[in-house]
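Deliverable D4.2, example record:
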Amino acid sequence: MFKLRRLHMITITQKMYENQKRYRDELVQAIEQKVKGHEFKKTSGAYGVYPQRGAGDYMMRPRIISGIVTLNQLRGISAIGKSYSKGWIHLTTRQAIQFHKIRLDDTWEIMKRLLDLDIVTYGTGGNSIRNITCPALSGVNPREVFDVTPHAIEATKFIFELDETITLPRKFKIGFSNTEEDEGLATIADLGFIAKMKNGRRGFVIYGGGGFGSNPEVSVKLSDWIDETQILYPILAMKQLFETHGNRENRNIARIRYILKNLGEEKFRVLYERHLKTVSVNDLHKIEHLEDVKDFSKQVEEPMHGLPNTISRIRQKQRGLYSLYLHPSHGDLSCEQLDQLLDMTEVFGDRVEYRLSITQGLYVRNLREEQIVVLEKTFKDLIPSTRLEASIACTGANNCSIGLMDGQNLLTNLHTYFDKKETLPFIRISGCRNSCALHQLAPIGLEGTKLKKENKTYPAYKVYIGGRIKREGTLIGTHLATIAEKNIVNMFKELYILSNQKDCQDWDTLYSKYKEDIEKIIIGYGGNVNDA
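Output generated by the structure prediction step:
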């Protein structure tokens, strides 16, 4: 019998353990029958195991619940990385970690070690309810409506006990946000919750039917407010709607956004409300208690002055405390660096917390002034100083079996050329149209593709501009041009020259005043396969 344990504030039940253990049987059968990697993916994907480029290489994605991870779990993750993934871990764009270049034969052994850390991989890929996003600064953000961490945890508890969560028509993504900035991606989720107060009560605005990849769509508002005790009903209602009306024949049009597109907003809302009424009839899933979040503010003396905010340093709403953002290049963090970080922060005491971001990074929270100063000096190579340095690129063709372009290499070239130059914006680069880096949400986004010209094919990127995420204001970027890879850096050079000519110190100012000039430069490179 599997012993019950605590996972953050979540109990790993016997059911969760049995779900995870089924992978072992599937693996043994696949090895005995010599099943090919792309065939085994149909089964292994639900457990977060995918084949990578390279003979026999695989990736595994443990479920780091809403990015919340403990020091002991990070130590265990580092040990696994050193044993199985060449001493590295990868931080993702959905608050998780990945082990790259592991062997298929080792996957069950890794899962057993993760279970000892109270971590599962069940439901981290395939046609499942994926990791629920929650802003990494929820609970410490001075601008937040309220902390949505307990709600994301309660929602995760709930889905772990549901049946048929890995046999949906396609993936199902849920997000919680604590501010108008929507850092939990609620307005592009299959189902999203944004914090809102009403008559002194905590609750949420509900969104649904959004998603990115091919044919991206912004979510539509489904409810202007529900009480925080009612959040499980929309999850169950949307799951039932998806199971009943999702397309199981064609996975390319199987996401919830296609149901919305086919029905239209009005009919989709009526359908959602019908399912919501059905699942709410007996009031079985009302949340009676949400665990309180620790407040360390009384334990810290407020400094006389205090450090200012930067891209990587954030003053918390708790007086005298800070969060530090670490952003390893391409999200690849060496286990050696991770061990050093843990050794240093462990002596700071139990107050320190760790949260994974949606931008291939890690936040260390609840730091005192003298502590964050020491960390900034020690880990300066992991700390971005400009928006461009904080940019992200998915793993791309370097590892991903479906990636068309190596966006990480391109991002490295941009960093090298524009080192410490502050004008260029935060950019997102996806290796293909799947939009793992959410490139259509960035001020400038790039999507790996191929450019056909005179019966020849060239590596290229689709260039998008003007994307943003915000409650009531999320915009999908406009595709302006498809540009040969070799000309992308030159395009950015011209944009930088434009900013100097117009004496603009930041991208937002340049874009608001000289949008037509920016568009002219980008469009001018479109379709050109010659050296610029």
